[in-house]
Design a protein that fits this description.
Radius of gyration: 26 Å
CATH architecture of the largest domain: Up-down Bundle
Number of strands: 0
Largest sheet: none
Number of domains: 3
Shape: flat
Distance between the termini: 69 Å
Oligomer: single chain
Structural class: mainly alpha
CATH class of the largest domain: Mainly Alpha
CATH superfamily of the largest domain: Ferritin, core subunit, four-helix bundle
Strand content: under 5%
């Protein structure tokens, strides 16, 4: 492999580690739990160490090392983590860490093999953190590493797709009506009706889903409380097995379980989190907040194709609607790259083409219906 190829590879590796160090530092600052904040600080230091190692490799080749700069994708994720909290971005970061660890596969450097193992370790810790709303138990991070349950839902993904649903569905609706009639009023009424119907439907569905989950969690916690009262020995055994499944030695697991069971004031909270995977304080979140968020995200996407019909009419409104919607679709495509790591231009243009194709199809159908009715 030539020096030029090595330099290019080292620069790519270095950028990944620079982004990782900045991201973990931001998580540490945004994290409210001191134990988890400490974990993120350690992960950031690890990424800094990796970046310095690649810089040394570049220096050994007498290559020009550009100033450190965090990528726009990572800057966006940092903003989201600070605005909405670490849990909002953790599932996406977990997937990115897995991909980054695989990026080192096949690289001949000894550092690549070592850093690949580190990145896989980071991904496992992030997966555990994203599953647990309460963070990781203090003092057990090293012992739990490598043994975890699957990560939780991806709020970032839901947000991007919610806006995409609103934009594509209402763009297709307005284009279909515009193809069938030249009445600007009809198109605007259809678009606004579609916005309210679609956003309302999503909000109601989300409310029912979250409220049903809350009621289920409340019922499960009630049963757990009864079991603690009626058969504490069995609950002690179950808690011990949970900690053993996470990698703790049997004796240590029983010791921790016994200590926790002795605390009558918090044992129900502990068992709800560890055995049921439920945060008793959150119970899956607020149904009303989830409904409002779904309504808002759908409406934000839907505004793009409707907006031009408020000020223009006829062919002009159609062209401007398509142009504004294309911009919105490209932005959504850029948002998707936060989760996939693909190029912005490729993902953005793919999103634009798919959305415009759907609009063209409904416009053609509307045109045929309009001609037939006429």
């Amino acid at each position: 492999m030539s020096n030029a190829e090595d330099v290019k590879r080292y620069l790519t590796n270095r950028q990944k580690e620079i982004d990782g160090a900045a991201m973990y530092l931001a998580l540490a600052e945004a994290e409210k739990q001191p134990q988890m904040s400490d974990v993120y600080h350690k992960l950031s230091a690890s990424e800094e160490k990796h970046a310095a190692a690649w810089e040394k490799k570049l220096s050994d080749l007498n290559a020009k090392i550009p100033p450190r700069k965090v990528s726009w994708r990572t800057q966006t994720m940092i903003w989201l983590a600070k605005r909405f909290g670490p849990q909002f971005v953790l599932p996406t970061l977990t997937a990115n860490e897995r991909a980054d660890s695989q990026a080192y596969d096949g690289q001949p450097d000894a550092e690549a093999e070592e850093f690949s193992a580190d990145e896989k370790s980071h991904a496992r810790l992030l997966a555990m953190a994203s599953h647990s709303t309460g963070g990781l138990p203090g003092g057990t991070v090293a012992q739990l590493e490598g043994r975890h349950r699957a990560g939780g839902g991806n709020a970032l993904r839901a947000a991007v797709l919610g806006a995409n649903d609103g934009l594509v569905s209402i763009l297709s609706l307005t284009m279909g009506v515009a193809g069938a009639t030249s009445s600007n009023k009809d198109v605007l009424i259809a678009g606004l009706a579609g916005l309210l119907a679609g956003a309302g439907s999503m909000a109601l569905g989300e409310w029912l889903s979250v409220q049903s989950s809350r009621e289920l969690y409340e019922h499960q916690i009630k049963i757990e409380a009864e079991e603690i009262e009626e058969n504490p020995a069995e609950e002690l055994e179950e808690l011990s097995l949970i900690y053993q499944s996470k990698g703790l030695p049997e004796e240590r697991a029983r010791e921790i379980a016994a200590h926790l069971m002795a605390d009558k004031g918090s044992i129900l909270d502990t068992l709800a989190r560890e055995e049921l995977g439920i945060d008793p304080e959150e119970l899956g979140g607020s149904a009303y907040e989830a409904a409002f968020t779904s309504f808002f995200l759908f409406a934000v996407g839907a505004i793009f194709p409707i907006f031009p019909y408020l000020f223009w009419s006829g062919t002009t409104a159609i062209y401007i609607s398509l142009a504004i919607s294309a911009i919105g679709l490209f932005i959504i495509g850029a948002g998707i790259t936060l989760m996939t790591g693909r190029g912005v231009l490729y993902t953005g243009m793919r999103q634009v083409l798919v959305g415009i194709a759907a609009a063209a199809l409904t416009f053609g159908v509307g045109k045929l219906i309009g001609v037939s009715v006429g």
